[in-house]
Every structure is written in structure tokens, then in C-alpha cells.
Amino acid sequence: MAALIPAASPPTISRRSVTSRGYGPAAVWGTTGPAGHDGGVPDDVHPLDDPADASALRDHATALADGIEAAIPAWVERSTRRVLGDQGIPVDAALADDIAGAAEAARADGAPRVRALLLSDVDDQAGNPLAIVRSLVRHPTVVLRRAGARPVVRVEFDERSFPDDVYGLTPASFADLDPSLHDPGMTWGAAKAYVHLARRRREGRR
User: Fold this and answer.
1) What pLDDT is attached to residue 124?
2) 195: exposed, middle or buried (C-beta count within 10 Å: 0-12, 13-18, 19+)?
3) pTM attached to this predicted model
4) Domain span at residue 72?
5) Domain count along the chain
6) Which of 35, 59, 187, 193 has the least CB density, counted as fewest CB within 10 Å?
């Protein structure tokens, strides 16, 4: 597995960027958000937030949640079949059904939790969406064990950090889940950091 990066670690945003015009989430995307999202100011905007930036952050969060939900099944299928192929285990119809079932179970398990987290207030977000995705490896792991796959050799860090991921399926980043998620993940992380820091400054805490 590639070296892990901290889940949802946004680019560094200077204090100047919080107080300068043209650096907030709304300035980057406009109030309509990323392509395919209509924006609009959320009804539950925090009183310390700029409404346009709150709307843009929600759009970025929604785009990332949509992308993760779409990517989970393919990631499970791809990861499971990779291990099976590496170990020379053929995929018959029954095993293919098991893989498809695990892919859908992972989506049903993870997607609602990811969406609920991303759309919650930034001060209420305990954990991060990538951690939720990483917890989903249990679904393909069950299929691989049933198929007789052998645990793979992993580096010490992975063994210590993810002891139950015996097949090395844990994604190191959003891009490992799907390359198309790299930009949405970075954009959401930066927008969240901006709103969080701006809120702290308006409270006089930064």
C-alpha cells in the first residue's frame, strides 16, 4: 500500500487568506459550487459563517459525498479481484456474486455515514470521510477469506495501523478510492479549513 497521508488533511491556509477578499470557498467556485451542483444558501447557516462560503462548502461536501458513494462499489470489486488474481484464485459465477454483494453492502454501509459526516457542521465533525471508507475493507475481506485467499505481506506501519486489513485493501487517500476524487477531496478539505478558521477569527480566537 502507498504511504498514508492523513485523512482529509487540507492545504495550509494562511491567516491572511481568511481576512482577504477573494480567497474563500465562494470566491473559488462562486455561490453555485462545483459543476453539477446548484448551490443555494443552506437554511442552517452558522451565525458566524459567511452565507456564500457556507453554501460553497456544502456544495463541495455534496460533490465529494456523491463521488465517494459512486466509487465504493468499483473500489471493492477492483480490490477484491486484484488479490484473487495475484493469488491465482479463479472467479466463478458464485464468487462473482459474492464480490458484487460485498460491493453493494459496502456502499450501503459507508455512503450514508460519509454523507452525514460531510454535511454536518464543521465543528461537529468527529472523524473524517476517508476513515469511514477505510472501515469498509471488512466487506471484501470476508469474501477473500471465504475464497481461501492468503493474507498478504504488509509493512509494519500498515500492520499496526490496520490490524484487521490482512489483504492490504485500505486506501491511503481519496485518489486510491478513485483518481477522480483527488480534486474534490482537496477542495472540500481546503473549504472546510477556511470556514473553520474564519469562524475562529470571528470569535476572536485566531
Assistant:
1) 83
2) buried
3) 0.76
4) 49-202
5) 1
6) 35
Which helix H or strand E contains 111, and what residues bound it? helix 93-118
Residues of the chain with pLDDT under 50: 2-23, 27-39, 41
Report the run of H or E that residue 82 belongs to, with start and end: helix 51-86
Q: Which pLDDT score, from 0 to 100, does residue 32 have? A: 41
C-alpha separations of 3 from 6, 31, 203 in Å:
10, 36, 37
| Closest C-alpha to 189, from 71, 73, 63, 31 | 63
**Gap between the Cα atoms of 56 and 79, Å rounded:** 33
What distances in angstroms separate CA 75 from CA 104, 144, 179, one per listed residue? 11, 14, 11
Q: What pLDDT does residue 48 have?
A: 63
Q: How far is CA 202 from CA 17, 154, 205, in A?
A: 14, 46, 7
Residue 1: its pLDDT value, please? Answer: 53
